[in-house]
Amino acid sequence: MKKKCKNCKQEFTPFRSTLQKYCMERPECVEIFVSESKAKQWKKKKSEMKKELMTLSDYMSVLQVIFNKWIRKRDEGKMCISCGNMIAKRDAGHFFSVGNYPSVRFDEDNTHSQCVHCNQYRGGNIHEYKRWLIVRIGQERVDALEKRAHESRKYSIPEIKELIEKYKSLLK
């Protein structure tokens, strides 16, 4: 099967694979091929270096995005935990706020789907949230959640990496 070289536009028969883009017959075509492969290697190395330089805060941000995505998927088809309306666009709403209660930031009992209106414009609509949270998970689990919310909790990078992998696998 003949192809046209991406550089010199001459027809050639690929000998490496059907994905081959350059004819490899002219020095400039070989040079471009080599520089492209070096660019790919650099991109991969740069990605690895970025991962090595990630801080605890960076990992927390990554985990928060994945965790919230999983909560929205878990609660797909359920109504807003606060107002009971069907949700077109959903947020992962926290009963105990992320900033004030870091110990339950990634607690599945603390996070449920909320409509954007309740979560962003009504401060989480907490009074209704609590009422429906008791209905959804039961008073005993709400009491346990309240206790966990007031405990001190620090996440380590290995713990966060483990949680990232857990929620990534649950999303599949």
Features:
two-stranded antiparallel sheet; 6 helices; mainly alpha; 52% helix; 172 residues; 8% strand; 2 domains; two-stranded antiparallel ribbon; elongated
Could you characterize the architecture of this molecule?
Helix 2 runs parallel beside helix 6. 52% of the residues lie in helices and 8% in strands. The mean pLDDT is 93. It has a two-stranded antiparallel sheet. Strands 3-4 form a two-stranded antiparallel ribbon. With 172 residues, the chain is mainly α. The longest helix is centred in the N-terminal third of the chain and has 26 residues, at 27-52. It has six helices and four strands; from the N terminus they run ββααββαααα. It folds into two domains: 3-52, no CATH class; 56-171, no CATH class.
What's the topology here?
Layout: E1 3-4, E2 11-12, H1 27-52, H2 56-74, E3 90-94, E4 111-115, H3 116-121, H4 126-137, H5 139-149, H6 157-171
Antiparallel strand pairs: 1-2, 3-4
